[in-house]
Amino acid sequence: MKLTVVILAMTTTEGFFNMTSECISSLCESEENLEKEIIIVESNKNYSTSGFVYPDFVKIIIPSFTFNFHKFLNVGIKAATGDYIALCNNDLIFQDSWFSEILLVGQAHNEIMSFSPVGKIEVDNSLDASFEIGYKVMTHVKGWCIVVKKELFHKINLLDETFDFYFADNDYAMTLKSRNIKHALVYKSHVVHLEKQSTDKIKNNESINPDILSKYKIPKYLNEKKYEWVFNNEKNLSGFLKFHNKWGSPNFLYKKNKLADILIKNKLGYLVRFFLKLN
């Protein structure tokens, strides 16, 4: 069994280099007997002359285009040779046997094709089950570490590159659910997420210039006070609108998801695609 780990990095400072290096070291130490392939998809176009050097066993890919979350992950996916592929941030600390626990679930349940570890959340060890099926972002689907069986991409193709960062996790979760592909949160798989964003991040309280708003087609429901957060910054707004255009409004999607959950619970998941079909 071979695992390919795709890590997104931006090695422009010693701090970022050390963070990614710690991520790699913890990965190697956590699963010493596992055949691993480590691929870094690097945002720093000048990495080769930066003076920073990762271990020889790490494959470095530097795309010619600007950073796009799904597009960069797709670069790693296309280069991967493992039976399983982990899609990871570089601000992670892998704990002992984190992947072995995922592998146990994956081998025992062929129908589960996507997995996430738990993070800092303490898990009740008295739970009967070793995993939980679900699609809730940040609860079940951890966008900072998703592990998939390679054949998943024969079913969904590559990740939707429309989503360059914001709402990428939401789109992935909906893609799985709409195709009745099971995702599991594996309770005994532990990966600590340091939550130190390695890419430039716009402050949440940054207001959007009204002139910028004029270039977007804003749905009327976004005028409601409860959606003020959508306008925190332009990238957040853009991501929200991409998700809206693909999957529908929150209210409409909520109703479709409730019906889909009923179908899945009653083992009629093959019908879900008719209710969660793309707009």
What keywords describe this structure?
alpha/beta, Spore Coat Polysaccharide Biosynthesis Protein SpsA, Chain A, Glyco_trans_2-like, nine-stranded mixed sheet, single chain, glycosyltransferase, 2 domains, 279 residues
Characterise this structure:
It holds the Pfam family Glycos_transf_2. Belongs to the glycosyltransferase 2 family. Strands 1, 2, 3, 4, 5, 6, 7, 8 and 9 form a 9-stranded mixed β-sheet that branches. The protein has 2 domains: 2-193, Spore Coat Polysaccharide Biosynthesis Protein SpsA, Chain A (Alpha-Beta Complex); 210-274, no CATH class. It has helices at 14-30, 69-79, 98-108, 152-156, 168-178, 210-213, 234-247, 250-265; strands at 2-9, 35-42, 58-61, 84-88, 92-94, 112-118, 131-133, 145-149, 182-193. The relative contact order is 0.13. The radius of gyration is 19 Å and the shape is globular. Strand 1 (2-9), helix 1 (14-30) and strand 2 (35-42) form a beta-alpha-beta unit. The protein has 279 residues and is an alpha/beta fold.
